[in-house]
Amino acid sequence: MPAEPQTPASATPPPSTGRVPPPLLKSLQPVTPAGEPARNSGWPQKAMAILLSVGLGLFLADGVISLTDDSLILLFDVHVLAVLRGLVCLFALLAILAIYGLMGLTPMIPKRLFLPVTLFYPLALLTAIPLLIYHYDRIQQAAWGISFAQVVIGLIVLGLAQGGRKIRWPLVPEPRLGARRFSWLNLTAFGLANLCGLLPAVIVYLMFCTSLAVGHFSDGFLSLHPGGLSAQVRKYVRNDGRVIQLVPMAHIGDAGFYRQIARSFPSNAIVLLEGVTDNQNLLTNKISYKRVATKLGLAEQQKEFKPTGAELVRADVDVEVFSTNTISLLNLIMRVQAKGLNAETLRELMQCQPSPEEQAQLLDDLLAKRNQHLLTEIRNRLSQPKMLIVPWGAAHMPGIAKEIQKSGFHLDTTQEYRLIRFRGFGKAP
Length: 429
Known about the structure:
Number of strands: 9
Order of helices and strands: HHHHHHHEEEEHEHEHEHHHEHE
């Protein structure tokens, strides 16, 4: 029989074991993209991606709703989104606060993406303070600008997180997260940056803004600096030789300030004193600042300010010229002063919600009416050849200065006095 043809050994296929993939399938296995480290996707990464996505989504939604609401207010004076805006803002703040806290615990959160988001709310609030001081009438326009900036920042962060124009869920994909779940170096650096960097910077900034507010609202009669609170005494003169000296005062301050001011008054002067009278006994509690002064280690004006030698004239109004609402509010304030802040007085304060009209009436009673009465006294005394001294509250000074300048007076000299000294800082001017 003829022999069967033999198959060459090299052509014999290897036995199939079922464990080794064919060459074609092996070449189709996923390959990690260049520049992207291989990671094991577990539940911490998935949970973090969802949290960051929710936080970013709420941040952007808050910006869009706020921008829409501010636009409706500016264009049509329509307030229809206030409740929705408040709710979304609350949830956005809670999510952003959680993200900021976790940013210190884990390096998974990409800081270059979420630092602008987490710091936006406090930075917007701090930026608004100078606007409230100098341009309160344009605060709505400022609010629109802040909302617009929030939307822009949210869209930029979203685009960087997605890596393209197509929006997919989660908004922050897992490949954008860091590989390490915890790092002592990250925690230490985060803590130091907040305690030694952000916190001191915010404190200094708030002190600076407070100084701006004091100087602006007192028209420079008061100035706040690291050494304390200073008062600027201004002397105004007129071409006919008449002199008016405005002395900004405060109900509480350093005892030395009141004594120094009292000694500075010449004997040939007329001192127009501040002090509301109560001839009808309309106030249920005596006006006193003793409790506050004692707690702050300061002195009361009525106890320490005792000018002598000069002619003293009471130039203030009586309580009876105030409205009923103003008298009620004064009684509440004096009751809190007398009894302190307890459950009863706190409840009364919370229940006290004066309307805008009542607030305007309060301001008119405490400032406008009293200023007008004082100006009448000044005009009546200008016929006398004596220097007029007006030691009144600093809040009255801008209005009084403006009115006497209309009468021909101009600023002649100024002198600084330390009203309140911050212990351990600075020397008296």
